[in-house]
Write a structure and sequence with these properties.
- By secondary structure, this protein is an alpha/beta fold.
- The chain folds into two domains: 157 residues, Leucine Aminopeptidase, subunit E, domain 1 (3-Layer(aba) Sandwich); 320 residues, Aminopeptidase.
- The protein has 15 helices and 20 strands.
- The strands form four sheets. Strands 7, 8, 9, 10, 11, 14, 15, 16 and 18 form a nine-stranded mixed β-sheet that branches.
- Helix 8 runs antiparallel to helix 10.
- The protein is elongated.
């Protein structure tokens, strides 16, 4: 899909459709919409008076052969109440429009921005929304509709901003493409994405964008005494891998912060000996969503070039119930030296993150963010609306939540009080891999990971309920979402 800025008057642009948005307010038709309404002989006012055009969020009104426009269709997308509107909402608006028109065979469209949204931030949001919405999950279907948007022209932006607009468009493209890169990985069936294949794909990406990369095989993992990771991996014939990606800024500051990104990459999770129910187990290919998230974030950072050093550590394995699989009651020794009593082999993500975080700290990371499809408990707490965000110290978490807000991603600060520490104490080892009390599973899982972060500023993102959607959204295909990548990248750029 080609995206370009247009400086010609929007009314003269020939396209299959022109898209703009309308607010839910009494005076709907100001600015360019007033001009369009006049050119159409008051047709928009008539639609509003009849109740067909309200401006409710993501409401769609499609008009064929609109008077005064060279485009064959005019699509009006509801933007909701103006007091609640933020620039990041443009992602959903353009994404909804693209998916609606794409399904109707539209090849070429124009997006017309409104007054007040004509600068770089709006252009970035629009482009990212377009690229993200264009992603489909039908990779392995032999019969496809072959409907695609070939080009999008961006009209109405402030042409005087010149290079700033161009940079914003590039930024939006990078973010959208990096999210789609992660989504493609997360969508892969586990027979086509083993730990070794994931490592190979990461290596190809790293070389393409200029990141340093090292792949630790099972021998190196054993030499490093990553016993928690090896404990999960021992039930599978597929060997584990640890993917290490490095971004070094051109002008690295001696003694400056080093951001560590640690992602859980269980390429398939049966639950191990504590096996999961068969219902929906096929979705457990997405249990490498945290690792995919960090790979997408690193890809974006390679292009956007923050001034902070970033190291990603992505431990990857399958969790299988083989004859050599770890069992409830076993004790594993993590890389840090802590001993872990295995209560439930389906609480495996925190085990591999334990060694991933220890290794990130060993490599010199001074600040940590981990992402994982960690617990079902987070869905009980937050449904699929918010990412559960844990962190210490609270000031560090608050800074990250500011980035999440700027990126337009819903995240909610979750409790991590000392009472949760008591719930993971073991009678025969240092800690146990599940909490001893009823409830609080997301918080006990987070505290387990915190044991290995120790005093390093640390954030844990539980994306179990937001990494995947079972039903498509108007602006997003069914399947993987690429959640948290925008927030992580924004935070890295500001650190």
């Amino acid at each position: 899909m080609q995206i370009q800025l247009e400086t010609q008057p929007y009314s003269s642009l020939e396209a299959d459709a022109l898209v703009t948005y309308v607010f839910d307010r009494d005076d709907k038709f100001g600015g360019v919409l007033a001009d369009i309404n006049v050119a159409m002989g008051g047709r928009l006012s008539a639609l509003a008076a009849s109740g067909e055009l309200t401006g409710n969020a993501l409401e769609l009104v499609l008009i064929h052969f609109p008077q005064g426009l060279a485009a064959q269709r005019l699509l009006l997308v509801g933007a909701g109440k103006p007091g609640k509107f933020v620039t990041s909402d443009l992602r959903k608006i353009v994404g909804t429009a693209l998916r609606h028109l794409k399904s109707r065979g539209v090849k070429k469209l124009v997006f017309l921005t409104r007054e007040g949204e004509q600068g770089p931030a709006a252009a970035q949001a629009v482009v990212e929304g377009l690229v993200t919405a264009d992603f489909e999950t039908d990779k392995y279907r032999t019969e496809k509709k072959n409907r695609e948007i070939q080009s999008v022209s961006l009209a109405g932006f402030d042409s005087g901003l010149g290079a700033n607009l161009t940079a914003a468009i590039d930024h939006g493209s990078v973010m959208g493409e990096s999210r789609n890169f992660a989504r493609d990985l997360i969508n892969e069936p586990s027979n086509r994405l083993t730990p070794r294949i994931l490592a190979a794909k990461a290596e190809v990406m790293a070389k393409e964008v200029g990141l340093g990369i090292e792949i630790l095989d099972e021998r190196k993992i054993a030499e490093l005494k990553m016993g928690a990771l090896l404990g999960v991996a021992q039930g599978s014939v597929e060997p584990p891998r640890v993917i290490v990606l490095r971004y070094v800024p051109e002008h690295e500051r001696p003694g400056g912060p080093v951001l560590g990104l640690v992602g859980k990459a269980v390429t398939f999770d049966t639950g191990g000996i504590s096996i999961k129910p068969a219902n929906n187990m096929e979705k457990m290919k997405y249990d490498m969503g945290g690792g995919g998230t960090m790979l997408g974030a690193m890809r974006a950072l390679a292009f956007l070039k923050p001034s902070v050093s970033v190291i990603a550590v992505i431990p990857s394995t399958e969790n299988m119930p083989g004859g050599r699989a770890q069992k409830p009651g076993d004790v594993q020794v993590a890389m840090s030296g802590k001993t872990i009593e295995i209560i439930n082999t389906d609480a495996e993500g925190r085990l591999i993150l334990a060694d991933g975080i220890t290794y990130a700290r060993k490599l010199g990371c001074t600040h940590l963010i981990d992402a994982a499809t960690l617990t079902g408990a987070i869905e009980v707490a937050l449904a699929n609306v918010h990412v559960g965000a844990f962190g210490t110290p609270r000031e560090y978490l608050d800074k990250f939540l500011e980035s999440a807000k700027a990126a337009g991603e819903n995240m909610w600060p979750m409790p991590i009080d000392e009472e949760y520490e008591e719930m993971i104490k073991s009678h025969i080892a240092d800690i146990r891999n599940t909490g001893s009390g009823k409830g609080g599973g997301a918080s006990t899982g987070a505290w387990f990971i915190k044991e290995f972060a120790e005093d390093t500023p640390w954030i844990h993102l539980d994306i179990a309920s937001t990494c995947w959607v079972d039903e498509g959204r108007p602006w997003l295909a069914k399947g993987p979402t690429g959640v948290a990548i925008r927030s992580i990248v924004d935070f890295a750029l500001k650190l």
